[in-house]
Amino acid sequence: MFRGTFEHAIDAKGRTSLPAKFREVLAAKYGGAEGQTLVVAPSPLDPCLRAYPMEEWQAVEETLAARGNFDPKLNTLLRLFVGGAHETPVDKLGRMLMAPSLREHGSLTKDVAFVGSLKFIEIWDAEAYRVWKLKQREQVENLARALGDLGL
């Protein structure tokens, strides 16, 4: 399972390195990091990307395909999520090249945060991820205060 958060630089051409811990997961669970292809897709929920090992991506596609294509909301998800996905090889040094459309979706320009999310990896602009985490902490603190006020 992918867990933890790691920051790496991304260059102007969109090249970055997959964190060593995540390469270890690929090697142990998915048959190796070298020559592995990840499917990187724009997140439908947040301004980040999702990177799936091919085996996990195929499970996502099968789940979506089983739902049919007559639901307008599902069709929107398919167009944005599946239609925006790119197969992204990881080279023997653990480097990967992000497609321009994916970099644009995630606003990836300088530093990226790789965030383990069990079966996939989120890829965020590092500063945007810090801001997002801070906002979430504030919301949790507000919720905790409200529950305390209620005696819960």
TrEMBL record:
InterPro entries: MraZ, MraZ_C, MraZ_dom, MraZ_N, MraZ_sf, SpoVT-AbrB_dom, SpoVT-AbrB_sf. One of its GO terms (molecular function) is transcription cis-regulatory region binding. Pfam families: MraZ (PF02381). One of its GO terms (cellular component) is cytoplasm. It is found in: Cytoplasm, Nucleoid. Keywords: Cell cycle, Cell division, Cytoplasm, DNA-binding, Repeat, Transcription, Transcription regulation. HAMAP family: MraZ (MF_01008). Belongs to the MraZ family. Forms oligomers. This is Transcriptional regulator MraZ. It comes from Vulgatibacter incomptus. The lineage of its organism: Bacteria, Pseudomonadati, Myxococcota, Myxococcia, Myxococcales.
